[in-house]
Amino acid sequence: MTIKYNNVYIEDASTVAGYYESFSPYSKYFDKIYKKDFYFGEKSLEKAETKLFKESIDILLKKCNLKPSDIDVLIGGDLLNQITSSCYGAKDFNISFLGVYTACATTGEEILIASNLLENKDVKRVICTTSSHNLSSEKQFRNPVEYGGPKPMTSTFTATGGASILLTNNKKSIKVESITIGKINDLGVKDANHMGAVMTPAAADTINTHLKDLNRDLSYYDLILTGDLGIFGKEILKEYMSKEYKVKLKSNYNDCGAMLYDLSKQKEITAGGSGPVCSALINYGYILKMMKEKKLSHVLLVPTGALFSPTFLFQKENILSIAYAISLEVV
Question: Cβ of 226: how many Cβ atoms within 10 Å?
């Protein structure tokens, strides 16, 4: 299902990144980088992630010369149980809050909800925020890093950071043109260390649905970016779309997980980046900058999410996935 919008614009965005992200080829587009302490001065990794969430909002408000009272709704989501980073991060702003969860596709769901509120003119300004922390996510979904368990080359590396975007129905230079709501997909993958393979069918189905619903070709977009398939998932998607939908992804396609890190130097990253902030760091930093400078005019963002529960994994269930497609245009 695809929804078109006439009154949804991007005012600005902000990004805060961690140590490993400081070596990113796109680090110059981040607003703030922590280069030393993984705890960021906090007493736990979860509190450190909460700090990233809050700081991205503070930076965004400052960039836009706004106060929390100027924001109608704050939408937040992260990877931790009960989206605790978002809830604790939101509590001090005193803004009406909606918490969402679609794993690494969370930014897509956030922008979808915000766009519907703005299109109907129920509100004027909405901030969408997400965060993830490599060490808090590893502890929850796999094993603490201190455990020292080896990882296969297909495993992706949860990005550390916080990212926020301010959407408005006041006309700006970049608009949200349309959004395709993805469906739950199941390719039968059970491997928690191969998220690229898990999310491939969702990305493919959503991109294909988006193009069919709007009667568009891939060439309509200057750039199509999936969320965090990584270097292996990126190649699987190309093959899968060609065989399943007869759609050939070309040079205007890339993946944020494959872009975020310098994989030729950062060997510990293995297959690339993941986590909801992975695509947000690229999209809210680099991509919006390129669109503001009119170096890109039509971009399709496809945040991808593996709906991964350790409980269900231990019960030998398949890992499900979802993706959203967000069409951005320069006005």
Answer: 32
Last residue of a domain, one of 116, 138, 168: 168
**Domain boundaries, position 133:** 2-168
| Whether pLDDT at 227 is above 90 | yes
Boundary residue ending a domain (168, 196, 214): 168
Under the banding of pLDDT at 50, 70 and 90, the label for residue 143 is: low
Residue 188 burial by Cβ neighbours in a 10 Å radius (0-12, 13-18, 19+): exposed
> Would you give the distance in Å from CA 127 to the centre of its chain?
14
Residues 205 and 297 placed together within one structural domain of the fold: yes
How far is residue 99's CA from residue 322's CA, in Å, rounded to a whole number?
18
Find the CATH number of the domain harbouring 138.
Answer: 3.40.47.40
* Residue where the block lists tokens 């709007």: 214
Neighbours of 179 (CB within 10 A): 25
Question: Please, what's the b/e burial string for 86-123 (b: 16 or more CB within 10 A of its CB; e: otherwise)?
Answer: bbbbbeebebeebbbbbbbbbbbbbbbbbbebbbeeeb
156 and 195 share a domain? Answer: no
Strands (E), the chain: 2-4, 9-17, 32-33, 73-77, 96-99, 125-132, 157-158, 161-168, 174-180, 223-226, 253-255, 273-274, 298-302, 304-307, 320-323, 325-330
Q: Do 93 and 72 sit in the same domain of this protein? A: yes
pLDDT at 147 over 60: no
Residue 117 has pLDDT above 80, yes or no: yes
Express each pLDDT in 166-212 by its tens digit: 999 999 999 999 999 999 999 899 988 899 999 999 999 999 999 99
